Amino acid sequence: MLKSQNMDDALYRRAAARVEAQLAFYRHVMIYVVANLLLALLNFVRNPHHLWFHWVIFGWGIGLIAHGLNVYSYRWFASRREQMIQRELERQQRLRESPPP
After folding, report:
1. Cα distances (Å, whole numbers) of residue 74 to 8, 27, 49, 80, 86
2. Are residues 53 and 39 in contact, defined by beta-carbon separation less than 8 angstroms?
3. What is the rounded CA–CA span in Å between residue 77 and residue 96?
């Protein structure tokens, strides 16, 4: 019973951490959109002949993409990790069951 509860607690903590990472990414997207709209507006009002806001969008966009990949590619890496662990467990089981030479 205790082992099951510990496993459930660990799963809950992992799920909560994952959800928090997703929410942090959504906040990042919202801040990115609002801040860049304000910067574009500022650029058009103050100096419409020299547009610079697109450099901010580009640079920050690279960071935003990296953040998104970090949050959402986790599923692929986690499933790949689980497959590798399962294969290793099966290999260890076969080694343990095979008779010694």
Report:
1. 20, 18, 43, 10, 18
2. yes
3. 28
As a whole number of angstroms, the distance between CA 90 and CA 60 comes to 45
Which residue would you say has higher pLDDT here, 27 or 8?
27
- Any idea what DSSP says for residue 1? -
CA–CA distance from 2 to each of 6, 8, 11, 14, 99 (Å)?
Answer: 6, 10, 14, 18, 35
* Residue 52 φ then ψ, to 5°: -125, -15
- Domain total of the chain: 1
Measured in residues, the chain has a length of 101
For the chain, percent of residues with pLDDT exceeding 90: 51
Q: Which residue segment(s) compose the domain that 42 sits in?
A: 2-97
Two tokens at 48? 């419409």
Q: What is the pTM of this model?
A: 0.68
Rounded-to-5 percentages of helix, strand, coil across the chain: 90, 0, 10
Quick one: what percent of the chain has pLDDT higher than 70?
90
